[in-house]
């Protein structure tokens, strides 16, 4: 794909373009509750930590409810450019719902940009369908390219009715993530790779992940701090030191563009990044302070 087309795809996306996040809004539709892997920093009481902030949970919608919410939000937010599916579990582990939701929305809106976030396990088998659906932005959370490190992060991997754990599970997941990133990038999808920086686990290895992501054609990487989730195995793990995070981002910026404005938003977030207005659209939601708490 030509550079100009790539830039055009990123220009109105508040996560893919730093400038766009001051102007454009995105909304997440929480239609994907289940997950097919177990990350040690995850507590299933909360949204997927790979793309979210622990401590808040999302309601779950059917595809039809997702469409209705999209239409309500679109009518009120003229700067809405992106609809994303980011959990509260994994977008691809709930593929039927994810696909149906996007199909319903495409029937009523030809222009809105679709975005997905995934742990990548099912990417090799779904990459083609993702592209056919008109999804041009996919986030893959890949915390390691070394199975020894991966085994410290992932407890088990549930793939086609088999449970894989330890090294075997990490090998399987990592190989699918890498194949998936490459397959999507080859098809012109802008791939963002999220990496959760875990002190003493993968912090020394992040540059290797970024270099590999670049070789495979990723567009940007987003190195995120760990916010320890209550009830997860890493509940008492030290949170990522912000100073070390900026050093690592700077080092990795030598290899590939870095996202630095992520707000680790929730799976039902609505609005501009850091200015969540989902409480206006979600019935029964207590007035939240997302904008204050985020990022
Ligand atoms: Fe949502 Fe993610 Fe798409 Fe953005 S979020 S699926 S790429 S539309 Fe954005 Fe939120 Fe950070 Fe994600 S600020 S957690 S990077
Ligand atoms: Fe939790 Fe997300 Fe990991 Fe699944 S991919 S276990 S939802 S953090």
What would a concise description of this structure say?
This protein is an alpha/beta fold and 295 residues long. Helix content is 35%, strand content 19%.
Keywords:
alpha/beta; 8-stranded mixed β-sheet; 3-stranded antiparallel β-sheet; 9 helices; binds FE(8)-S(7) cluster; binds iron/sulfur cluster
Question: Would you give an account of this structure?
Answer:
The chain is α/β, with parallel strands linked by helices and 295 residues long. The protein is built from 9 helices and 11 strands. The strands form 2 sheets. The protein has an 8-stranded mixed β-sheet. It has a 3-stranded antiparallel β-sheet with strand order 2-6-7. Strand 10 and strand 11 form a beta hairpin. The radius of gyration is 18 Å and the shape is globular. Residues 15, 26, 28, 51, 82, 84, 86, 115, 117, 137, 139, 192, 222, 262-265, 273 line the site of FE(8)-S(7) cluster.
Number of helices, counting only DSSP H or I runs of 4 residues or more? 9
Bound molecules: FE(8)-S(7) cluster, iron/sulfur cluster
Proportion in helices: 25-40%
Give the strand tally.
11
Could you tell me the mean pLDDT? 90
- Please trace the helix and strand order, writing H or E for each element: HEEHEHEHEHEEHEHEHEEH
List the strand order in the largest sheet. 9-8-5-4-3-1-10-11
Q: What gap, in angstroms, lies between the N and C termini?
A: 33 Å
Uncertain stretches of 5 or more adjacent residues: 287-295
Portion in strands: 15-25%
> Main beta sheet, described?
8 strands, mixed
Radius of gyration: 18 Å
Structural class computed from helices and strand pairing: alpha/beta
Q: Choose one word for the global shape.
A: globular
């Amino acid at each position: 794909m030509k550079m100009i087309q790539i830039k055009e795809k990123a220009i109105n996306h508040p996560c893919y373009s730093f400038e766009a996040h001051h102007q454009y809004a995105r909304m997440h539709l929480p239609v994907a509750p289940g997950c097919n892997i177990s990350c040690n920093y995850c507590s299933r009481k909360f949204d997927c930590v790979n793309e979210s902030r622990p401590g808040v949970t999302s309601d779950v919608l059917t595809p039809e409810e997702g469409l209705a919410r999209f239409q309500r939000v679109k009518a009120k937010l003229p700067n809405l450019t992106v609809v994303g599916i980011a959990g509260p579990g994994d977008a691809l582990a709930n593929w039927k719902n994810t696909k149906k939701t996007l199909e319903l929305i495409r029937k009523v809106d030809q222009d809105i940009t679709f975005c997905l976030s995934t742990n990548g396990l099912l990417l090799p088998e779904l990459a083609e369908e993702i592209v056919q659906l008109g999804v041009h932005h996919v986030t893959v959370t890949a915390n390691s390219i070394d199975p020894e490190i991966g085994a410290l992060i992932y407890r088990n991997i549930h793939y086609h009715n088999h449970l894989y754990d330890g090294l075997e599970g990490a090998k399987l997941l990592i190989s699918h993530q890498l194949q998936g990133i490459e397959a999507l990038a080859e098809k012109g999808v802008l791939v963002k790779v999220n990496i959760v920086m875990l002190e003493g686990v993968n912090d020394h290895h992040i540059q290797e992940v970024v270099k590999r992501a670049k070789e495979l054609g990723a567009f940007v990487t987003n190195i995120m701090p760990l916010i320890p989730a209550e009830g997860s195995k890493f509940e008492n793990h030290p949170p990522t030191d912000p100073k070390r995070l900026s050093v690592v981002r700077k080092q990795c910026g030598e290899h590939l563009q870095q996202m630095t404005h992520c707000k680790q938003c929730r799976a039902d977030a609505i609005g501009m990044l850091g200015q969540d207005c989902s409480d206006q659209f979600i019935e029964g939601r207590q007035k939240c302070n997302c904008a204050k708490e985020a990022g």
